[in-house]
Amino acid sequence: MADTDGSLPRGDARMRIVTCFLLTSCASTTALVAPSPPTPQRLELGRQDGERDFAMTQSPIDGRFVFTRARADRTLQLMETRFDLRTQRFEPPRPILDEGGGTDADGFFDPRTGDLLFMSKRPHPGRAEDRQDFDLWVVSRRGGVWGKPRPMDAVNTEHQELFPSVDRDGVLYFASDRPGTVGGADLWRFHGGRAETLGPNINTSETDSNPLVLPTGDRVVFYSRGRQGRGAVDLWITVRDGDGWSTPTNVGDPINTEQGEYAPGLSADGRTLFFSREASIYAVERARVPTLAD
Q1: What's the burial of 269, exposed, middle or buried (CB within 10 Å: 0-12/13-18/19+)?
Q2: Residues 249-260, buried b or exposed e (16+ Cβ, 10 A)?
Q3: What phi-psi label fits residue 199: left (phi over 0), alpha (psi between -120 and 50 degrees) or beta?
Q4: Structural domain boundaries of the chain?
Q5: Burial 173-198 (b: 16+ CB within 10 A, else e)
Q6: Residues 6+ positions from 122 with CB-CB distance below 8 Å
């Protein structure tokens, strides 16, 4: 995660952009067809001074949004919200999964099941009380109620497992500092019952993290501290190349700036890219990002 800030256009122009985006992303999960903002627009989520919002994802089941809020005291909490078409505003976000002890973060809705994957330091059987690493978890929502979170034991180790995302084939991507990592954290994926690094073409001697796999599984967007970009950290993209991955390309305009961009996510229909810049979440139509357009 990195830091940066930005601003929205004011007045009616901003409202038309946000309304156009949210009419599709919130009102229906079966007709997500209207355009997203053509340029990155900051989403107003009611955060307080000293707080940061990042890692937005949208449910393919009911259209709700989930994101992470970092409080001023450095605790992390998953928040959910909807957009009210009558008031043209997001509803006040509310926390979910309160028993996480302030360590739940980086949610991602599985496009196949609608289950929410996330990372947490919450205790579970077999985990020592003094461990400080993040594990990956999953929770289902049925009948309008969040169920009991379950640790992803097949993936988790005594090392960090961070920022999960999964493609339509069920291949899980995440960041980790487990053995085999060459930097502070590397990009990994888990399939066929085993984890494998994305390899030296992707991972650097510094931290590479926040992997977002596109639903088709052929592209991964992530941030890197080991590559020279425009700002503190930039978003990069790699494309599946046979059994490996292409040399990453800077995502470029209109996403990356001299500030720092991180925590990419997608709307339920895949047409809107969410990302964070300093303390805020932004949205942009994916088709307007040349490196991400289909």
Answers
A1: buried
A2: ebbbeebbbebb
A3: left
A4: 11-288
A5: bbbbbbeebebbbbbbbbeeeebebb
A6: 99, 100, 101, 103, 104, 137, 149
Residue 213 φ/ψ, nearest 5 degrees:
-85, 135
Distance separating alpha carbons of residues 239 and 229, to the nearest angstrom: 18
CATH 2.60.40, applies to 11-288: no
The Cα–Cα gap between 284 and 294 comes to: 15
Cβ distance 120 to 102 under 8 Å? Answer: no
| 8 A C-beta contact, residue 24 and residue 32 | yes
Distance CA 131, CA 127 (A): 7
Phi first, then psi: give them for residue 23, nearest 5 degrees.
-60, -30
Could you list the pLDDT tens digit for every one of the 294 residues in the chain? 433 333 223 334 443 444 344 444 444 433 333 237 899 999 999 999 999 999 999 999 998 999 999 999 999 999 999 877 777 778 999 999 988 899 999 999 999 999 999 999 999 888 888 899 999 999 999 999 999 999 999 999 999 999 999 999 999 999 999 999 998 999 999 999 999 999 999 999 999 999 999 999 999 999 999 898 888 899 999 999 888 899 999 999 999 999 999 999 999 999 999 999 999 999 999 999 999 998
Q: Which residue has the tokens 């599984």?
A: 217
Name residues whose C-beta falls within 8 Å of residue 225's C-beta, 6 or more positions apart in sequence.
184, 204, 206, 207, 208, 233
H/E segment holding residue 22: helix 11-25
Residue appearing with tokens 């300093």: 278
Q: Which residue has the tokens 């000293």?
A: 50
